Amino acid sequence: AMSSFAKKPKVVSVTGAAGAIGYSLVIRIASGEMLGKDQPVILKLIETEPGMKPLKGVMMELQDCAFPLLHGLHGTADLEEGFGDAEHCVLVGARPRGPGMERKDLMTANAAIFETQGKAINKAAAKGVSVLVVGNPANTNSLVLAANAPDVDSSKVMAMMRLDQNRAMGQIAEKTGCLVSDVEKVVIWGNHSNNQYPDIHHATVKGESAMKVINDEAWMKETFIPRVQKRGAEIISARGASSAASAASSAIDHFRDYVYGTGDMWHSIAIPSKGEYNTTPGLWFSLPRKCLGDGKMELVEGLTFNAFGEEMMKKVEKELIEERDAVKHLLP
Ligand code: NAD
Ligand code: LMR
């Protein structure tokens, strides 16, 4: 039978496509899990020169999957070619941390990558491009990228916080014996780092206050918060490598919800602050937002903090300012 596709293919560019996250991610984009089962995609996969050989293997596998939605497949180490006409970019290509490192230890190795890529996206990507930064330190890499891409709407340059949100939901579901789908309105404030504030004060479990259902402040402070903050390190020490399938899955969740919208659901997304919740403008500070579809977002306003929350907010803000200062040389 002849196939027909009503929708025009969308170009999706992925950096680091031959790495651990990339391997999990590109298969799911090509199968339609990110942009929909009726949305054809053209994949542009970007790797370093040494990454070109393993990338060839990944591309062979993509071909061998015979995905009906995959209408084009390109692999390149040339940034302008790789970002050419991109409507969505998932920026994964960067060094991962090993045992004993903090994510900000990757700053010198990784931030410069985002300077170069920002310039290339600015030149080559489609108008209205949206970008998800996964490579660490994701929030500050986003800042570097946007500063080097003046023609790109910086509110469409997002640092990935969805993995932290999903981790928090998983912990609450386990603690309460409910399903993750019963858990709503968890917020991850601030940075994708061990200073983030995973906040359950507004969360609900089956519509009831999570604080009331859990009724265990010591668990919240001593188990839940540090566990979510340090989950990346916990996985590195168990697996000997940083999280990959869960990171890829969160990137899929992020873009699917961003493009299709999820009504009243809350998602933690880091885009440049405009000073909301007393945050410093221009920091990629994660705040709760509703996804209205087609990339439109609305801030969840009017949430309040207790003294503990205020302190957590100040601490993570300070860290984001320090990270910004450390990359000053990359900001034009
Ligand atoms: P990996 O080493 O397995 O893969 C990275 C790939 O990127 C490699 O194939 C490498 O060749 C490629 N690469 C490196 N520099 C590049 C560049 N300039 N352009 C294009 N490609 C480049 O690492 P991984 O496990 O896939 O992790 C990738 C990044 O994602 C790391 O920085 C990691 O810390 C981060 N990460 C972020 C989150 C999050 O929630 N934000 C979660 C997990 C991992
Ligand atoms: C994660 O949260 O799993 C990633 O950011 C990888 C890491 O270094 O923790």
Automatic annotation (TrEMBL):
Residues 12-150 form the Lactate/malate dehydrogenase N-terminal domain. It is an enzyme of class 1 (oxidoreductase). Keywords: NAD, Oxidoreductase. The keyword NAD applies. One of its GO terms (molecular function) is L-malate dehydrogenase (NAD+) activity. GO terms for biological process: malate metabolic process. Its EC number is 1.1.1.37. Residues 162-329 form the Lactate/malate dehydrogenase C-terminal domain. It comes from the Eukaryota. Belongs to the LDH/MDH superfamily. MDH type 2 family. This is malate dehydrogenase. The chain holds residues 78 to 409 of 409 of the full protein.
